[in-house]
Amino acid sequence: MVMPTGDGLYRGQVEEEAHFVVHGLKEQPTVRVDGPNSIAKVNMRQESDQTWKVFYTPIETGIFQIKIFGNGREITGSPYHPTVTDPRRVKVVGGWHSIMDANNRLYLRVGEEKRIPFDISEAGPGEIMADVEGPHGQVAVTVERQSDTRRRVCFTPPAEGPYEVSLFWNKVPLPKSPMEGYASLSSPARSPVAPPRGSATRHITEMTTTSNRHVVGSEMSSRQEGSSRYIETSSRHIEGGTAKVILRGHGLQEARTKQDAEFVIDGSQCTSGKPVATLQSTSKSGLVIPVETEQIDNNVYRCVYTANTPGTYLLNIMWGDRHVSGSPYKVNVTGSLCDPNKVTLTGEGLKGGVIGRELIAKIDTRRAGPGELTAHCMGPQKVAYCELFDHHDGTYTLNIKPQEAGKHMLHVKYDGEHVPNSPFSLRIAGAPDASKVKVYGPGIEDGVLALYQSRFICETRGAGAGQLTVRIRGPKGAFRVEMQRESQKDRTILCKYDPTEPGEYYVHVKWSGVDVPGSPFKVCIFDTQEELERYRRGGWVPSWGPGEPQYGGSFHSPVYRPAIPWGQEL
Question: Environment class of residue 240 by beta-carbon count within 10 Å: exposed (0-12), middle (13-18) or buried (19+)?
Fold first, then answer.
């Protein structure tokens, strides 16, 4: 009995090798691992005479499908559906730094509930689990479901002392887990922590210019990290007080039209007060844009606004009815006159294709106004070559050259925004390869008429795009051909021909006009078991004589020709 075992049948992680073992097969099994939008590369190694170890590395999150074939057929229990996650994509809303103190520890206060909000939108299927160990043992923890993509871990330190917080996604530890913290009887000091080299997430704002910039009421120092420019902001003080309110985020200085801009107000060193923020245009309209604030920790707030019109705005930030130092801040909102929603794409290339054939699509930007057009196409593991030919009249021809089979995602953007229906999903099939078609089943073996089972399977997976043709020749009027697929997306085709007379039959199976391995298959059907046994021993020659029967073909044996459109599977 074939028996697969191992953790890789049930779970995995993005870009980490998963494995399982198949027991009970002398021949190497056929294994296929499909993700939501990709096909994982599979390797295997023989461990013993009837044991095979299978390895695969997923490149995306989601529910995968593992199909295992042995001895020409799918094994019992297949397919399996492992859950693939990416704990690295579990993010603290506001950044990990927003919950740390100056010593890079969780800042905690005795008797005050600690709430840590998480964004899980890109982590794949799963749930957050948390364990908190305090100076006197385990501490009760709850995980709140705020939305489909948000969770919040909550606990209350009962006593002063060190704490250890362990966080898991789908039972896998998060990269920063476990985290250390210290609960004190008073609010711990929090000061800016120097960001790691190359990081733009801690008290810094990414810029695209190469010159120093100054914003009203704030001091900034620029530094070059590789090819990017970063600006580190200083703390802002509340007028008339000594407590600090720290602001960070690119939304303090610039924004793009119709895109969310964010910044964080950190008043954790203040004992009272709440923030109020508004954004107002400097134009004659004096348009006021609301700024949404969400508390993500003790006196720490995430702020979001969206400006639909380019121009100069003033960002007013107040804490406890007083402006923070430098408020209002000047914000430059940039945009363009183009409308990506008016870009159109047409062409057969958007329906998919086959390796070795270029996909072609037409792009029309004439109604969208001036802007920058970009195209990027990614396959399961390789980038497809994209070429844009400018006709200098607002229209373009896009040529795509896939490098591998599988699902490809085509991203077309105009001035940085997706055009309608982008990203496009393209199915790329391999070139027709008849040698990859497998035919098996009792219908291509000798047998006895009264007990004969004429079914046989044509497995075309891996054979690329093409047409399957089955012709059967035999005694005149002695059979009829039936063919069907197991499902619309399956490339397994079930055939049967129900012979009604003994005789010699020839089964021709072709893929895109080329005989598959073993074709034509010679099948001898006898009246009795005794005749079959004598024939197998070589002691008897059937009365119908040698040579392929002339009856059948397209007239007596209907040809099943399932045309597989380029890029689609049966």
Answer: exposed
